[in-house]
Amino acid sequence: MGDVLAGFHAVWEFESDSVLIRYERGIRTPKLFQALGERRIPLSALEEVILTTGKRGTVALRLRPRPGADPLMEAAAGQLREGSDPYRLVLPAERSTLAEYYADELKGLLTESGPADRYLVTAPEAPLQFKAYDGKASFDGTSVRFRWSWTGASSAKWKAGDQSFAVTDLSGVEWRSPEVFEGHLRLLRRSAGSAESAQPDQDLASVVFGLGYGPVHESLPFAAAVLAAVRTRGPVPAVPAPSRRDPADIAERIRHLGELHQAGLVTDEEFSSKKAELLAEL
Q: Boundaries of each SHOCT domain copy (predicted)?
């Protein structure tokens, strides 16, 4: 088609085999759109085009991806608010005729339907990271690392120490939006047994969200990137992690460990062992 359709917060460019979506930057643009920047959606990843009447004199053109075609939407699992739907383009009502034209043109180009056997839309690229309520999550393309925060992590997580999970040991990702109660990101492990039934604040393979911690535009692309890497079993572009830790961070962790020890939450043996581990990271 080779045409361009501009709406609020995004511009769609129609190509012979895909739709290129460029999201605008600005104070009114949803942060998720700004984080995504640009996405190319192959027509083979789509199964429906929907045109509806929007609010306040607008119309909305929406693409519906096939199940399993986009790791971002699979990770979101229907939890995104309408205004943050990256497949929805809102236009003024006076452009409804034009929107209807493009909707009809697209419908005539769609030939696929039903679940996709692989991801057809490119996932966000690593390295990615975000700050959760009880720790920092980072993904370098081959492994996920959780570094616990002394201000938010449970004593169980502090006792166990920071965690690292290879993509090859994972079977999936569970993302619960930070905009709902008990939001979290949980890594699903191949041999976890009953561990995944534990509450996220006690599960070493989970980080929990809170007000201002793990926002959608940071944690959802993160979840999608991990999910895509798990599905393909291959790394995505990565930047090597630093080999040494901040001495101030180590000192703070040892101080908090000492508080847990004095409170009787950590035994003498656990305190000595964990302190030695932390000092070894300097």
A: 252-279
CA 164/CA 182 separation, integer angstroms = 23
Distance CA 77, CA 79 (A): 6
Cβ neighbours of residue 142 closer than 8 Å, sequence gap 6 or more: 166, 167, 229, 235, 238
Helical residues (DSSP H) of the chain, grouped into ranges: 31-36, 71-76, 96-109, 155-160, 216-232, 247-262, 268-280
Q: Does domain 128-240 have CATH number 2.30.29?
A: yes
Question: Is 97 strand, coil or helix?
Answer: helix
Read off the pTM.
Answer: 0.82
Distance CA 33, CA 24 (A): 7
DSSP 280: H
Peptide bond just before 242 cis, omega within 30 deg = no
pLDDT in tens, 253-280: 777 777 777 877 667 877 777 777 777 7
Same fold, 4-109 and 128-240: yes
- Give the domain ranges of the chain: 4-109, 128-240, 242-282
